[in-house]
TrEMBL record:
Sequence similarity: Belongs to the sulfotransferase 1 family.
Classification via InterPro entries: P-loop_NTPase (IPR027417), Sulfotransferase_dom (IPR000863)
SUPFAM superfamilies in UniProt: P-loop containing nucleoside triphosphate hydrolases
Superkingdom of the organism of origin: Eukaryota
Keywords: Transferase
Sulfotransferase domain span: 10-205
Gene (name only): Sult1b1
GO MF annotations in UniProt: sulfotransferase activity
Protein name, entry field: Sulfotransferase domain-containing protein
Organism: Trichonephila clavata
Amino acid sequence: MVRASQVHSYITRNPKDVCVSYYYHMKDTPVHGFKGSFDEFFDIFLSGNIDFGDYFEHLLGWYEHRNDPNVLFLTYEAMLENTAEAILKIASFLDDAKYAEPLRQDPEKLNNVLKYSSFKHMKESVNSTISDIVKMTPDEIAKSDLPDTMKNIFSQIPKEHLPDDGSPPPVNFIRKGIIGDWRNHLSEDQSKRMDQKFAERTKGTDIPNLWKNYM
């Protein structure tokens, strides 16, 4: 939901890579514990009957607001290919004088932002943090300083999602973060079906131009 009184940064990614990434998220995150195959997940994703709703509906809803003054619309691919430019764009959107100008004037500050927002750093820190959380008991989670939403999620990991010996499950919350991993997962038929769905749902828009080099 776009609120005029707030600023929104919206990051979107091509649906083929989203499908693959989402599959591993659902499979490797203990609170979800998806047990099906990628082929099964692909059909679920394409149907739109999935956690957090239909991908295309979400994309189309935000795309309508891409030129709103309080919305910054970005693609994952562009951010990955030129991260420094994306950081400056976000900083400028929030407050150019306060956030972007200091980064332009001090390369060391910009390099620090690049370092600590890098995929490598985030994978190490986030996976480690979540691994620690899933080792906690429900009582420890309740008494922690975690946000309420995270407390609710991680205190309710189904027993069937845990290893048979009751040990904490392995966590791979952040996996690859690359562009084009869909080529290692989608069959030729699945790729064509996604292309067809994409064309149908984005007809009449210039959304296809966002990923003409990636799908």
